Amino acid sequence: MRLIAEKSGRTDKYDRLRFIRDDGSETRTDMPRQGTLPHDLVHYIVESALPLQHGFLSLVAAGADASFVMQAMHEPGNQRVETEAVQAEAVVEALQTQLWSACFDQDAFLDGVNSASAARGKPAFDFSGMDPRAQLYDRALALLERWNQVPFRQSMDLVFDNGKD
User: Fold this and answer.
1) What are phi and psi of 52, to 5 degrees?
2) Per-residue 3-state assignment (H helix, E strand, C coil) for 11-24
3) Residue closest to 147 by CA, chosen among 2, 18, 13, 42
4) Residue 16's closest CA among 46, 41, 49, 44?
């Protein structure tokens, strides 16, 4: 699936992310400007790095509408959301907190993942044998730098492959 992150005008409060599926269909969502890497682009980092098949981007790639999936994943009381979707969302939230703090604290990151997962009644993603700083945080910083270089009213293309090819 192709992702096109479009930066709006300088004073706009939202940028936009278009999802173009392999079959040519598409959906889109607004990305609130938050002073760091937009939440949906953090999903790109997390879901490209972790072996999850049912995160936000995978669900959109499979045909779900982006706004519907976002609403379902961000509702802590929604027990119908798959375990992997909750795990992806929990990791994204914890990683975004690390980006806002401008440094990586692995203990705080893992606590954030555990808390966000527990709040949704699901087990946390197991990071055993992984280096979250290198696989997630450093890659998010690189994408943030790339996003910051995109001029207003221009876009950046990404390719998401959830391993189902």
Assistant:
1) -110, 135
2) CCCEEEEEEECCCC
3) 42
4) 41
Q: What is the pTM of this model?
A: 0.90
- Map tokens 């936000």 to a residue: 56
Burial 63-73 (b: 16+ CB within 10 A, else e): ebebeebbebb
85-111 residue pLDDT tens: 889 999 999 999 999 999 999 999 999
Contacts of 63 (CB under 8 A, 6+ apart): 21, 25
Alpha-carbon distance 106 to 101, whole Å?
12
Instruction: Give CA–CA dist 72/146, Å, rounded.
Output: 29
Q: Which residue pairs, CB below 8 angstroms and at least 24 apart, start in 10-13?
A: 10/152
Provide the greatest CA pair distance for the chain: 43
For the segment 134-143, what is each residue's pLDDT rounded down to a tens digit?
999 999 999 9
Who wins on pLDDT, 68 or 77? Answer: 68
Q: Which residue reads 């705080």 in tokens?
A: 108
Least confident of 20-29, 54-63, 85-94, 151-160: 54-63
| Pair 27, 16: CB distance under 8 Å | no
47, pLDDT greater than 60? yes
